């Protein structure tokens, strides 16, 4: 499979190169030339297949060549071996035709593990094949950093540097990053805010000599390999409810649009999906964009579902690319307008195409708390606040269309957000024992001044990829 940039001015690449590149050099995102087709017979044949094997079957057609396909089953096996639930992504029924897909059984208790665990192994193997090393640098307000650290710890060809704002992440979030003992993991407590950390990161990526010197690679959610790894659980969950013979809808707690885009890809590979329901918190850019046709970020509002406190949904560009009939000029125009005037209008035909497949709902803070309480009362099931937005949006859909099952994606374990749960149901959920024990270990981190040159020196001195 070959990949092209949504903005049409960067080189076309094979999967392995897209994996290492992250963003395209023209500022666009990579998309495959076509979505591989999975026949109804092949969908039916996924029934009863273990998750790791289903992943290898479904992801294989997106890869570069036979050699990477041959390595894939071992990579998916290793990626999901550490999950605490044998089904990897189990499906739980909480009401008539309403199901929760638990994606939080990985090492950091959030759905990002499902993609990141595989991405780490794929990247390491490509570097092995090419006899190269790489340096991952990430900025985090909590969850993504922990998922990246868990995925890349101990991998011989990759060093990881994670910047987080000193004193501004929760105890659990910090310990998830700093109690990892592997030599290739470096945590930097930056004396600044998350925005300062993000700014330093962006400058490091624009610093060509530095980038070249340390072999800088990105793992944020625009990385295509992450999106494609997330397509798998749409298939496995729909099959367990009777696909391809029965349609299902999905409700997806959304921030950067990576997860719900994976559902769109599953649908375009042939999975019978009725509706894709985007659930946002009070940061409602996507709900506004679908309602009005205007994509216009506003200030970010802090909520009890912090991993969705986002105003620019980067992966939306990939949907817009398809919805405009893959019109590079329209995409360049839209994002130039976003840069210059802070908004763009979705072309009417593209808006109609998007509305034909997606619903979008914004769930406010009080409704999120009410949903956690209601699901506890009616089903004795504890939702985390991100998942609660999805379940609430799923109920709205079922009220209008009760005949089609809705699968709401559970993106985080409730124990990651004990304050929100306690507010809703008066009870503090516990972390799984294995994780709680590890978080007691010694912490390792380095406090650095909010200064690009100091951070760059710190990385260059320690990265094994660094050339003198
Ligand atoms: C990252 C995250 C999301 C949002 O996913 P996107 O792919 O960015 O839309 C939702 N819930 C949780 C818990 C997350 O960590």
Explain what the structure shows.
The protein contains 21 helices and 16 strands. It is of the alpha/beta class. The chain has a domain of 221 residues: Rossmann fold, CATH 3.40.50. The chain is globular and about 60 Å long. The two termini are 36 Å apart. Bound molecules: pyridoxal-5'-phosphate. The site of pyridoxal-5'-phosphate has 16 residues, from α12.
Q: How far apart lie the N and C ends? A: 36 Å
> How many individual β-strands?
16
Radius of gyration: 21 Å
The assigned CATH architecture of the domain at 91-109 and 224-425 is: 3-Layer(aba) Sandwich
Enter the CATH topology name of the domain at 91-109 and 224-425: Rossmann fold
Query: Fraction of residues in helices?
Result: 40-55%
Low-confidence segments = none
Small molecules held by this entry = pyridoxal-5'-phosphate
Number of helices: 21
Q: Main β-sheet: number of strands, strand sense, barrel status?
A: 6 strands, mixed
What best-fitting shape do the alpha-carbon axes yield?
globular
Mean pLDDT: 94
Structural class label = alpha/beta
So what's the CATH class of the domain at 91-109 and 224-425? Alpha Beta
Strand order of the largest sheet: 4-5-15-10-11-14
């Amino acid at each position: 499979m070959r990949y092209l940039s949504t903005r049409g001015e960067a080189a076309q690449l094979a999967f392995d190169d897209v994996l290492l590149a992250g963003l395209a050099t023209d500022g666009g995102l990579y998309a495959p030339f076509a979505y591989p087709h999975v026949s109804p017979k092949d969908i039916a044949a996924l029934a009863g297949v273990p998750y790791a094997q289903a992943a290898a079957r479904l992801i294989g057609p997106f890869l570069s060549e036979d050699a990477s396909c041959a390595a894939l089953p071992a990579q998916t096996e290793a990626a999901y071996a550490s999950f605490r639930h044998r089904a990897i992504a189990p499906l739980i029924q909480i009401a008539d035709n309403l199901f929760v897909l638990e994606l939080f059984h990985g090492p950091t208790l959030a759905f990002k593990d499902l993609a990141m665990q595989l991405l780490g192994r794929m990247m390491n193997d490509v570097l092995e094949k090419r006899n190269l090393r790489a340096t991952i640098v990430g900025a985090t307000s909590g969850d993504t950093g922990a998922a990246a650290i868990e995925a890349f710890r101990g991998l011989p060809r990759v060093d990881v540097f994670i910047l987080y704002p000193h004193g501004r992440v929760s105890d659990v979030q910090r310990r998830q990053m700093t109690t990892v003992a592997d030599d290739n993991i470096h945590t930097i407590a930056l004396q600044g805010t998350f925005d300062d950390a993000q700014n330093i990161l962006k400058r490091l990526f624009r610093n060509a000599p530095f980038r070249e010197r340390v072999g800088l690679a990105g793992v944020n959610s625009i990385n295509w390999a992450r999106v494609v790894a997330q397509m798998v659980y749409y298939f496995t969950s729909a099959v367990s409810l009777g696909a391809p013979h029965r349609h299902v809808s999905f409700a997806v707690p959304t921030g950067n649009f990576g997860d719900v885009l994976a559902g769109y890809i599953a649908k375009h590979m042939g999975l019978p999906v009725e509706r894709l329901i985007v659930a946002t918190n009070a940061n409602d850019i996507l709900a506004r964009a679908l309602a009005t046709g205007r994509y216009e970020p506003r200030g970010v509002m802090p909520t009890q579902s912090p991993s969705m406190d986002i105003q620019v949904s980067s992966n939306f560009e990939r949907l817009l690319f398809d919805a405009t009939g893959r019109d590079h000029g329209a995409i360049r125009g839209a994002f130039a307008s976003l840069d210059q005037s802070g908004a763009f209008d979705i072309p009417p035909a593209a808006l109609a195409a998007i509305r034909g497949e997606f619903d979008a709902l914004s769930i406010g803070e009080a409704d999120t708390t009410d949903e956690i309480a209601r699901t506890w009362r009616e089903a004795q099931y504890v939702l985390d606040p991100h998942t609660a937005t999805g379940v609430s949006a799923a109920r709205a859909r079922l009220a209008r269309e009760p005949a089609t099952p809705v699968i709401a994606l559970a993106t985080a374990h409730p124990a990651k957000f004990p304050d929100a749960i306690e507010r809703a149901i008066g009870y503090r959920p516990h972390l799984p024992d294995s994780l709680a024990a590890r978080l007691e270990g010694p912490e390792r981190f380095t406090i650095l001044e909010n200064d690009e040159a100091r951070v760059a020196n710190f990385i260059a001195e320690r990265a094994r990829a660094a050339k003198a």
